[in-house]
Amino acid sequence: MACLLLCCLSPSAAFAQCQARNDAFKSGESIVYDLYFNWKFIWKKVGYATLNTQDTTYRQKKAYRFNLHCISSKQTDFYFKMRDTITSVVTENLEPIYYRKGAEEGKRYTVDEAWYSYANGKSHVKQKRTYRDKPAVETQYESDLCIFDMLSILSHARSYDPTDYKVGDKILFPMCTGKKVEEQTLIYRGIKEIEASDKKTYRCLVFSFVEYPKGKEKEVITFYISDDKNHLPIRLDMYLHFGSAKAFFKDARGLRHPIESVVKKKK
Fold this sequence. Notes:
Helices cover 4% and strands 58% of the residues. By secondary structure, the chain is mainly beta.
């Protein structure tokens, strides 16, 4: 659920190149979020999420490994148990290599995996979704653009310069969803000041992740990304089929740059 959505996206209109230079994060970074859900017009804290970055080795090459964990509180488990673990591995040049998402959400448990390769100027991905109680589903896909998952896109996005953004710009990209690859759309909305769980207010870049059912634009997620060199997700508003959820930035350690987007503190 909310664990899937802790990500921000790139200002590039297309991803012809999968490589990028990392200017935003370093090994040892750890970010914490509070998760809230709307229960009959009342916003209630339902758990927390952590996003950690570490150096690793994959197929004898240096790489980065991102781990995102989402855990519902014991009180929330009575209504809806959530134990999501998402892992993404990228090269030092931020090319996606491997992705895994293990999700226990209520009574449902699935494991999604993706293996990436690059040949003949195209991106290739093999996906596998494993269920607890039925056969696995395997698919393959290729694209002229770089294919991402929800964490590898974050590593790319955090290193881009946002000065070229214009309000209303649309960003298109293909993303793995477990059983298939879908074309996604993000719209840049401008700059807004947002208060986080640490009681600080941040200057943020605002993006809308939208879908087009029956040709009509439908908001799915609103991202608020810190307007500094770290490009941290500060808040995410999620419009789900069964309600609304929010994720608020709480704390971070091991950042590569000082946080320079704080505009004021709550008295």
